[in-house]
């Protein structure tokens, strides 16, 4: 097994878990916070927009089964790459779309996939998703983990807040 990690931010982490968690070779998908300047932030602190963190998911996967490129391709289907100020009904800096890379190979793949998305003409607006080096990842509180499994009715409501229609429109 070739165990690797990937970190993506694309709005509320509640809705970012399931699309990755259900793929073959995925070991875990953890909700958390990254990209900011406050050590070990709480959900309440991140929500203030003053910590610099995004809500993100840290995906541990078997790279022999599922590639980083495939993860990035899923990311483009579940996060709106044209909205720098949030995602769907989630607004604010902590919901901005970011691909965090942990090595040069991930950076090259993310940049190449972003370039391909721009050239595809799939979106009328500019692609604004940032590609940044990974910083410390802080695991979110327990009640945020596996939200789609623990609270299926609430998850469905959250997903219908625009993300579900976006996924249907942009799925391959």
UniProtKB/TrEMBL annotation:
InterPro entries assigned to the protein according to its UniProt record, in alphabetical order: Met_Sox_Rdtase_MsrA_dom, Met_Sox_Rdtase_MsrA_sf
Catalytic activity annotation: L-methionyl-[protein] + [thioredoxin]-disulfide + H2O = L-methionyl-(S)-S-oxide-[protein] + [thioredoxin]-dithiol; [thioredoxin]-disulfide + L-methionine + H2O = L-methionine (S)-S-oxide + [thioredoxin]-dithiol
All copies of domain Peptide methionine sulphoxide reductase MsrA, residue ranges: 5-155
Molecular function per GO: L-methionine:thioredoxin-disulfide S-oxidoreductase activity; peptide-methionine (S)-S-oxide reductase activity
Keywords for this protein: Oxidoreductase
Pfam families: PMSR
Catalytic-site annotation from UniProt: 12
Protein source organism: Companilactobacillus tucceti DSM 20183
The protein's enzyme class: oxidoreductase
Function: Has an important function as a repair enzyme for proteins that have been inactivated by oxidation. Catalyzes the reversible oxidation-reduction of methionine sulfoxide in proteins to methionine.
EC number(s) on file: 1.8.4.11
Family: Belongs to the MsrA Met sulfoxide reductase family.
Official protein name in the record: Peptide methionine sulfoxide reductase MsrA
